[in-house]
Amino acid sequence: MVLYRVLSSSPNKPANALQSTLLNMQETIREPMVQDPTQFDVLVMPNLYGDILSDLCAGLIGGLGVTPSGNIGANGVAIFESVHGTAPDIAGKDLANPTALLLSAVMMLRHMGLHGHAKKIETACFDTIRDRKVLTKDLGGNSKCSEFTEAICQRMKDMD
Amino acid sequence: VICKLCPLSPPPAKYGGRHTVTLIPGDGIGPELLNHVREVFRFTCVPVDFEVVNVNSALETDDDMNNAITAIRRNGVALKGNIETKHTLPASVKSRNNVLRTSLDLYANVMHCQSLPGVQTRHKNIDIMIIRENTEGEYSSLEHESVSGVVESLKIITRNNSLRIADYAFKLARERGRRRVTAVHKANIMKLGDGLFLQCCREVASGYPEITFDSMIVDNTTMQLVSKPQQFDVMVMPNLYGNVVSNVCAGLVGGPGLVPGANYGHVYAVFETATRNTGKSIAEKNIANPTAMLLASCLMLDHLKLNDYASVIRNAVLTTMNETRLHTADLGGQGTTLEVVQSVMRVIQILRRIRMHVADLPS
């Protein structure tokens, strides 16, 4: 589940076809989100709740190593970034999981209209993770960042 | 700050050793669940009489709430269902539940989240005590719209209330032999507000060297809760984060139908379900889970020092949950509310017979 934190001052108007349900925080966070998060599709909320719910959801899908995000402005300027921080303890050691930043880049490509490239990279990334042969430490493996990246690149070459 | 863990003493038994407790049925599933509590109490011969005070959530006037508050002041203790906060009423009409908590200065909301062996959950071995500041923070109900389309909400954090809730948390941790207290905050952003809260927690922590104190930012906390909840022991936090964290924890151990909650002040105590849901959509359908409300009534009995009655009812509820495995729909079962309550009463009957036989045995 990808959450967009909208930073612009004018709220997006919902499309006519979208069903919108007003849920208060309590109804969202308790049992439903923790026990059956699959019932949710798109959630929109103010800043603090977004901060809390995005981390909560990251915890549900495997942690900060795999969670991408984007910050979209009203004028179309956008910055895409991983949700995780700088992780100084593992910096420069070829240990980090690049998935979060990679999927953020995929979001960026979609934002730019480069859907073909986005799909290809995303599929290669998901397939590598699903395969479970080359995984970084946070996902239970002991491969290096570069090895994981190489596996994704190899898959993309095989796709062509 | 003179802080006492519990009110000075429970209110005196009124007449013939019986206590009077204010009962506020509330809305949604509250009335039916509280009726079941009364049934179980009658069956178990609990020496408690209920003074029922109804609060009509559709009215704009404060008369009902004033009656309820007066009744609780008179009796000292209350058991309540959630009073619906209708969004259609004007903004000047505050949440009745909130008014109750602030008027009676019920500053500590305490929730004990424990994994139950009979309930299937993704995470096991959870045992977390959540102490939530209950009177200020983001629930100050102070908002204004100086410029049309721009609303300012005031979040109030005071040294006095932060110290007393921290003190409550540490005293409780010490009393229950708990090892670690974690303060939950967002002081990196709300540097003055949450910063003050954190500072007060640190000050209080220094007086409890045997207890480890640490702090965690609220977004990280929710992430840790859904991935590794076993790391938490006692948690203390301001009002809104308390709301969020308690709901996440309730979800982790099986849902809102299971966990009881307690609100303590220096003088009064009010018991209810932990996540304070009205349950409008399942009201009067005989499907609501009575566990949380029954366990809340046991917390109330403990508070009144009627511990034997509390134990019997609690054991019966937990036996039904864990051994008989009679579960309502929220737990994936097919039992009705009534079936669960009847099962609880059957177990109470058995426990009473065992006790009688034990009493009859030659010493």
TrEMBL record, chain A:
Classification via Gene3D superfamilies: Isopropylmalate Dehydrogenase
Biological role: Catalytic subunit of the enzyme which catalyzes the decarboxylation of isocitrate (ICT) into alpha-ketoglutarate. The heterodimer composed of the alpha (IDH3A) and beta (IDH3B) subunits and the heterodimer composed of the alpha (IDH3A) and gamma (IDH3G) subunits, have considerable basal activity but the full activity of the heterotetramer (containing two subunits of IDH3A, one of IDH3B and one of IDH3G) requires the assembly and cooperative function of both heterodimers.
Entries under SUPFAM superfamilies matching the protein: Isocitrate/Isopropylmalate dehydrogenase-like
Subunit structure: Heterooligomer of subunits alpha (IDH3A), beta (IDH3B), and gamma (IDH3G) in the apparent ratio of 2:1:1. The heterodimer containing one IDH3A and one IDH3B subunit and the heterodimer containing one IDH3A and one IDH3G subunit assemble into a heterotetramer (which contains two subunits of IDH3A, one of IDH3B and one of IDH3G) and further into the heterooctamer.
SMART domains, sorted: Iso_dh (SM01329)
Listed name of the protein: Isocitrate dehydrogenase [NAD] subunit alpha, mitochondrial
A molecular-function term among this protein's GO annotations: magnesium ion binding
Coiled-coil region: none
Catalytic activity: D-threo-isocitrate + NAD(+) = 2-oxoglutarate + CO2 + NADH
Superkingdom, natural source: Eukaryota
Pfam family, one: Iso_dh
EC numbers on record: 1.1.1.41
Organism: Oreochromis aureus
Automatic annotation (TrEMBL), chain B:
Spans through the membrane: none
GO MF, one example: oxidoreductase activity, acting on the CH-OH group of donors, NAD or NADP as acceptor
Record keywords: ATP-binding, Magnesium, Manganese, Metal-binding, Mitochondrion, Nucleotide-binding, Transit peptide, Tricarboxylic acid cycle
Compartments reported by the entry: Mitochondrion
Any one of the GO BP annotations: isocitrate metabolic process
Domain Isopropylmalate dehydrogenase-like per the UniProt entry, residue ranges: 20-344
Family matches, as SUPFAM superfamilies: Isocitrate/Isopropylmalate dehydrogenase-like
Domain of life of the organism encoding this protein: Eukaryota
GO cellular component: mitochondrion
Cofactors, names only: Mg(2+); Mn(2+)
Pfam families cross-referenced by the UniProt entry: Iso_dh
Main location: mitochondrion
Functional note: Regulatory subunit which plays a role in the allosteric regulation of the enzyme catalyzing the decarboxylation of isocitrate (ICT) into alpha-ketoglutarate. The heterodimer composed of the alpha (IDH3A) and beta (IDH3B) subunits and the heterodimer composed of the alpha (IDH3A) and gamma (IDH3G) subunits, have considerable basal activity but the full activity of the heterotetramer (containing two subunits of IDH3A, one of IDH3B and one of IDH3G) requires the assembly and cooperative function of both heterodimers.
Quaternary context: Heterooligomer of subunits alpha (IDH3A), beta (IDH3B), and gamma (IDH3G) in the apparent ratio of 2:1:1. The heterodimer containing one IDH3A and one IDH3B subunit and the heterodimer containing one IDH3A and one IDH3G subunit assemble into a heterotetramer (which contains two subunits of IDH3A, one of IDH3B and one of IDH3G) and further into the heterooctamer.
Family, as annotated: Belongs to the isocitrate and isopropylmalate dehydrogenases family.
Protein name: Isocitrate dehydrogenase [NAD] subunit, mitochondrial
Organism, scientific name: Oreochromis aureus
